[in-house]
Amino acid sequence: MFDDAPQNDWKDAEKVILEEFGKTPEELFGVSFDGEPGKGVMERTARASASVAQVHWARLANGDEVAIKIQKREIAQQVGWDLWTFKVVTRIYTWWFDLPLYSLVPYVSERLLLETDFVNEADNAERMRQLVAGESRLRGRVYIPKVYRELSSKRIMTAEWIEGVRLWDKETLTKPWHGGWRQGSPGCRGTPLDPPGYQKVGERTGHHPLKDRLKPERDAWKGPNGEGGLGVSLKECMTIMVDLFSAQMFLWGWCHCDPHPGNIFIRRLPSGKPELVLIDHGLYVHMQPEFRHQYSLFWKSLMTFDNKTIGKIVQGWGIKNPDVFASATLMRPYTGGDNSTSAGIRRTMSKKEQQERSYEMQRQMQKGIREVLGDEKKWPRELIFIGRNMRIVQGNNQYLGAPVNRIKIMGSWASRSLVDSPDLSYRERLVNFGRHMLFKFVLFGSDVVFYSSKVAQFFGRKQNLEDDLEASMKKVAGDMGFELNHSVFEG
User: Fold this and answer.
1) Nearest CA-CA partner of 337 in 300, 291, 304, 294
2) β-bridge pairing 65-71 and 156-160
3) Using one digit for the tens of pLDDT, what is the confidence trace for 67-119?
4) Cβ neighbours around 491 below 10 Å, total
5) What single-letter DSSP state applies at residue 159?
6) Most exposed among 108, 134, 136, 286, judged by the fewest C-beta atoms under 10 Å?
7) Within a 13 Å sphere around the CA of 453, how many CA atoms are in the beta-carbon half?
8) pLDDT tens per residue across span 411-462
9) Is the sign of the CA dihedral 27, 29, 33, 39 positive or negative?
10) DSSP for 240-288?
11) DSSP state for residue 160 in the 8-state scheme
12) How far apart are CA 144 and CA 163, in angstroms?
């Protein structure tokens, strides 16, 4: 669903490689398509294909298995047209609905255009690899694939090949492990996919390198009948995911904004714990330290209903309706504010007929959006993509049955980041530490709600906590006269 777009013919992919490096695939990657001894091999048919690029498997002459991401030749022109269409549609919406949306176009366009620059993606991947390696709470739990810089360019990116299970493959994730005691799944922790002395691909395939599929199948861990799985906990998988993206948002200020299930693999460590592999690092936003600190404090204040601090922060961002923005951030109705927008709607609606009510709700909706966008010059553009990240993370948790208390984990990282951030003075960090310890008691209330929902699920209730939150958001949205469409994962 996430990587099955139509793929380009091999001749087109070959032309892109030649245009980028002035070399054929055989010359650049040291592969042979006719079984030449001492050479690597490469599949002409892509293993995955998305709108921007397709990915081919190869084994280099030194034995390294790599994923070669090749941009589709038509993308440069297509992106230009898509962005032009986006600008036109946004201009129309700005005029027709009287909403200050067009000012967001330059920033959004710049971010989306960077997705087609694989040098930028390689930079992001290497930065994230370093950040994860330096954080003890994530090191050993999260893995970022190695990039082969000498085999990468603006339209070609070569990275280590990842063997893993997609995040949404609940059945394979949770089925019993048949791979042996104290054994991990292939490639975990960056170990070589094949042990020393393993047969070369050409030998394994009977010297038929032109076969459609050359990559070795590594599914012995599924058992003789192929009915096994990784045997890992969905709760642990989602905990790692929420931890990772919380660290990106609150601690580092480098946020991956496309964490859909196609970009996340799970592997099993020898300990039996899951390891999360994050790929596709094209779409990131960078949060400046001041904004990151404000955003962390904003999240912490949401959990404690500190409306004074919330109001002060969002006022600095040019936002004039804290309630609506708080609800959008939490992905649930915020009940700690004055609820002026929803109250105003209900007060007005009670005396109107259906037709007039529909018009009034739309008017209030427009007013609410204008107040959230507020001062266009102050409004942080990063919030667009940060919101996208949080919605997708929520969707992943929801799909897996809400095994973790997402809001509590994020709130805890937001508070703790104000202690750990090297950008703050020691005095500020010390004061924040004391506040963080008090904050941990506040989080207990969030646990009560979460575990109450889990108990209800245990006794047969079909909806999980994320389902309840989404239903509440849809109701609030309905009160404001519009419909939420959360099918972000379809197609």
Assistant:
1) 304
2) antiparallel
3) 999 999 988 888 888 888 888 887 887 777 676 777 888 889 999 899 999 99
4) 8
5) E
6) 136
7) 19
8) 999 999 999 998 889 899 999 998 888 888 777 766 666 667 667 777 777 6
9) positive
10) HHHHHHHIIIIII-EEES---GGGEEEEE-TTS-EEEEE-----EEE--
11) E
12) 13
Of the candidates 191, 380, 383, 392, the residue with the CA atom closest to the CA atom of residue 280: 392
Residue with tokens 């280099």: 60
Burial class (CB in 10 A: 0-12, 13-18, 19+), 385: buried
Query: What is the reported pTM?
Result: 0.86
For 119, half-sphere exposure in the C-beta direction (CA atoms, 13 angstrom radius) is 4
Per the structure block, which two tokens stand in for 189?
Answer: 């922790």
Query: What is the band of 197 on the pLDDT scale with cuts at 50, 70, 90?
Result: very low
CB 41 within 8 A of CB 32: yes
Helical ranges in 459-488 per DSSP H: 465-479
Distance CA 29, CA 65 (A): 11
Residue 19, both tokens: 């245009």
Q: What is the pLDDT of residues 220-239, one digit of tens each?
A: 999 999 999 999 999 999 99
Q: Which residue has the tokens 């940060």?
A: 386
Q: Is 441 helix (H, G, I), strand (E, B) or coil?
A: helix
Position 384, amino acid: I
- CA-CA distance, 242 to 245, in Å (whole number)? 5
Task: Report whether 256 contacts 128 (CB < 8 A).
Answer: yes
Q: Is the pLDDT of residue 198 over 70?
A: no
In this predicted structure, what is the pLDDT of residue 335? Answer: 64
Q: How many residues does the chain have?
A: 491
In three-state secondary structure terms, 343 is: helix
Cα 433 to the center of its chain, rounded Å: 29
Segment 469-477 long-range contacts (CB within 8 Å, at least 24 positions apart):
469/331, 469/332, 469/394, 470/331, 470/394, 470/398, 472/332, 472/333, 473/327, 473/331, 473/332, 473/333, 475/333, 476/327, 476/333, 476/342
Helix axis angle, 382-399 relative to 105-114, nearest 10°?
60
